[in-house]
Amino acid sequence: MQNNTAHPNDMYDLLVVGGGAAGFFCAVNTAALQPGWKTGIIEKNNKVLSKVKVSGGGRCNVTHACFEIEELVKRYPRGKNFIKKCFHWFQPKDTIAWFAERGVKLKTESDGRMFPVTDSSQTIVDCLLREADRYGVEICLQTEVIAIKKKQNHFEIVTGNRLYRAENICIASGGFPKAAMFSWLLQTGHSIEEPVPSLFTFNMPGNDITALMGISVEKAQVKIAGSKLAEQGPLLITHWGMSGPVILRLSAWGARELAEKKYQFTILVNWLGDTTETELRNNWGTLRDTYASQKMISKNPFGLPARLWIFLLQRSQINDEMKWGNLPARLQNGLIKNLCAQEFAVNGKTTFKEEFVTCGGIKLPEVDANTLESRKVPGLYFAGEILDVDGITGGFNFQFAWTSGWLAARSIASSRDKSM
Questions:
Q1: CA 300 vs CA 151, 181, 313, 315, 320: distances in Å
Q2: How far is CA 247 from CA 72, 187, 221, 402, in A?
Q3: What is the biggest distance separating any 2 CA atoms in the chain, rounded to whole angstroms?
């Protein structure tokens, strides 16, 4: 039997709903600015910061070394104008400085992704937990919000096991895969953009390419047939189809379009990156003359993984004995096509529960980009993926979590001064 009566002296100055990156950042920064306040986090699961813990293969891709705001916002398929305002207040250089001030140094990898120098996400988790402990932030686990009620000068938060009261609330509960899961927020008068998955891999059931699972190509170009969607970058062949940064970026930019296609579409893969069919055809004579007497199976001039090169030759009906100088025009054209625009049918997607990212959430016009406060309900704030903002892979979703959490904290901490 649930007990929805308020505890004595239970009025929180700030109660954060959601114990992920954005929620924690909001809570610890508010508590640092207002150390005398009662600040709490309620989390529906039995642990906090779970996505931080598993992200980046357990290393935590904290942010990205992109420090020009005009360039940074280009990494977000949705919410560009909104987050541009947010980043003027707090961007990657501020994230780096914040963690450095607390003894956590970050390093930049060749692709711009930034990780703790320890290569362990536990470093980030421990840092945030230390901050929460330092400022006395209360953490309540296995507490799911059922409803939020606005009273005259505070909120009542109804959960399955007790009633909470707070002067300010920050909703940082992450994205929800189904619209029905937003029902408790709709009751506050807010509206949502329908959620759909944003970062996912492409399934190719029954395709022979899956026999090459584990092979990666550093600079592949992938296009969605019949659309303007195209990306270039590392591609990984998996036992279910294709993954890697290039696929994840495509899934982010095409989140709504691919959902409308019910995840059934055709992709064109250029294994040679930005080399076009025309360019390759024009250079083919030089390749043929240079390697004329050599067997094609043993001479791969494109730097492709050996198993992939053999796969492409087989798909182009080129046998093991064929020499470069003897390749007929018909087979040559087939190989060029497969190198620069090989077609694959996609039928379905795979998302990873721990790192699930959605497109959709609270509509941005209903939230002030400079404060993260609701335009409809004073004292109600939002941070992180609950908003209709999502980034491509590479640390951009975490960066928005830190930015929105920090901005909400700054606004909440000064809210009482404004009301006086």
A1: 71, 52, 10, 15, 13
A2: 20, 37, 9, 25
A3: 88
Q: Which CATH number fits domain 6-197+357-419: 3.40.50.300, 3.30.420.40, 3.50.50.60, 3.40.50.2300?
A: 3.50.50.60
DSSP one-letter string for 52-107: HHHHHHHT---EES---HHHHGGG-SB-HHHHHHHHTTS-HHHHHHHHHHTT--EE
Q: What is the mean pLDDT of the chain?
A: 94
Say what the pLDDT of residue 179 is. Answer: 84
Instruction: Look up residue 101 and give its amino acid.
Output: E
Q: Please tell me the distance from the alpha carbon of residue 337 to that of residue 268, in angstroms, as a whole number.
A: 10
Q: Where in the chain is the domain with CATH 3.50.50.60?
A: 6-197+357-419
User: From CA 205, how far away is CA 118, in angstroms rounded?
Assistant: 38
H/E stretch holding 255: helix 255-260
Angstrom distance (rounded) from CA 17 to CA 375 = 19
Residue 386: per-residue pLDDT: 96
Residue 178 is predicted with a pLDDT of 83
Tell me what pLDDT residue 304 has: 97
Q: Which residues pair with 108 in a beta bridge?
A: 114
3-state SS, 376-405, equals CCCCEEECHHHECCECCCCCHHHHHHHHHH
Q: Which one-letter amino acid corresponds to residue 79?
A: G
| CATH code, residues 200-350 | 2.40.30.10
Q: Among residues 119, 182, 220, which one has the least CA distance to residue 362?
A: 182
Q: What are the residue ranges in the chain where pLDDT is below 50?
A: 1-8, 419-420
pLDDT the model gives residue 10: 78
Q: How far apart are CA 65 and CA 58, in angstroms?
A: 19
* List of residues 6+ apart from 54 with CB closer than 8 A: 121, 354, 355
For 350-407, write each residue's pLDDT tens digit. Answer: 986 555 688 999 999 999 999 999 999 999 999 999 999 999 999 999 999 999 999 9
Dihedrals phi, psi of 226, to nearest 5 degrees = 80, 15
Q: How far apart, in whole angstroms, are the C-alpha atoms of residue 290 and residue 144?
A: 68
Chain centre to alpha carbon of residue 27: 22
Q: Where in the chain is the domain with CATH 2.40.30.10?
A: 200-350
Per the listing, tokens 């005009």 go with 70
Amino acid identity at 91: Q
Q: Is 342 helix (H, G, I), strand (E, B) or coil?
A: strand
* pLDDT at residue 355, rounded to an integer: 54
